[in-house]
Amino acid sequence: MDTPQRTVVIASLLVIGAELCFAGVSALVKYLSTAVPSEQLVFFRSLMALVVLLPWIWRKGPAAFKTQAWGLHLSRGVAGLAAMYLFFYAIANIPLAQATLVLLLSPFLIPVIGRVWLAEQVLPQTWLAIAIGFVGVFIFLNPVAAELSPIVGIAFIAACLAAFTKTLIRQMSATESSSKIVFYFSALSTLLSGIPLLWLGAPIAMEHWLGIIAMGALAVAGQLGMTKAFSLAPAAKVGVFTYSSVIFAALMGYWFWQEPITWHMLTGAVIITVAGYLAIRTRRKAETGGKVGS
Q1: Would you place residue 290 in the very low, low, confident or very high pLDDT band (cuts 50, 70, 90)?
Q2: What separation in angstroms does the CA of 243 have from each of 39, 58, 178?
Q3: 76, 172 in Cβ contact below 8 A?
Q4: 44-67: per-residue pLDDT in tens?
Q5: Is the pLDDT of residue 267 over 50?
Q6: How many CB atoms lie within 10 A of CB 285?
Q7: What is the rounded CA–CA span in Å between residue 277 and residue 207?
Q8: d(C-alpha 53, C-alpha 74), whole Å
Q9: Cβ atoms of 76 and 126 closer than 8 Å
């Protein structure tokens, strides 16, 4: 059954609002990184997500901890935490829009990982979308006209790790609920990121505490908004709006840090958005036997 147009509009607005929240998280990380060690930022980001899950844990009781996929949960926790560390480092050291756009490559990397690791079939249209996406990133970064920071490579590794974790989620979803997957990631990332604080912890000023709380609140609001959006409408109809985050990141970078916005950035962003739309539509057609409602 086709999704009503009004519902699609609401879901699209929720996705855009969620991406605005995520861009706000990145901006706060960039601001806080000048005074707060990244180890503390990663820990509190993970802790906030865990706190939000406490009502679910209370309601589920011991059932919240039952799992037969310990290895997958641990792999996802380590890879996801590493991606967070690397992405936070990239945000602190390169323009906000650059770090955000490179991380948006992760959806294009998932089919590649699925092909190499799980021997999954990848449609020719998907390979085309991936190629177009990388062309868009190349134009956005414009390495011919300006020397590219090696930290962009760190952001790319973060994107690869993020794609790997999403592939693991697909594997776990056969036996694990989404709530349990989120819980174990939040618990493991909080526990593991808390270890360095035993020797790296430092006092945090009051104004920075406010920033940390705002970072956590925006992250939770973004996650809730994104979850609600995809429960209302399929990704084929609203998923393309996830690329709005690079626009918000570019505007915030320009407003707060005077990071330039150039024509090649705009052109690259448009190309990667088109590529993302093609990838989403191709995946949706494959899942529905080639029939997608307009």
Answers
A1: very low
A2: 28, 35, 23
A3: yes
A4: 989 988 888 888 788 878 877 888
A5: yes
A6: 15
A7: 40
A8: 18
A9: no
DSSP three-state, residue 36: coil
Q: Which residue has the tokens 């829009």?
A: 97
- Cα 249–Cα 253–Cα 257 angle in degrees, nearest 5: 165
* Chain center to CA of 136: 18
Instruction: Please state, in angstroms and rounded to a whole number, the distance separating the CA atoms of residues 79 and 77.
Output: 6
Residue 100 in contact with residue 156, Cβ under 8 Å? no
CB contact at 8 A, 241 and 19: yes
Distance CA 62, CA 189 (A): 20
CB 272 within 8 A of CB 104: yes
The pLDDT tens digits for 108-150 are 898 888 888 888 888 888 899 999 999 999 999 988 877 789 9
Q: What letter would DSSP give residue 195?
A: S
Alpha-carbon distance 159 to 168, whole Å? 14
**131-135 — which CB contacts under 8 Å span 24+ positions?**
132/271, 132/272, 132/274, 132/275, 132/278, 133/105, 133/108, 133/271, 133/272, 133/275, 133/276, 133/279, 134/105, 134/108, 135/271, 135/275
Residues in the chain: 294
* Alpha-helix runs per DSSP H in 53-150: 54-60, 70-93, 96-103, 106-118, 124-141
Give the number of other CB atoms < 10 A from CB of residue 77. 22
- Three-state DSSP class for 292? coil
Say if CB 193 and CB 40 are below 8 A apart.
Answer: no
Mean pLDDT calculated for residue range 78-106: 93
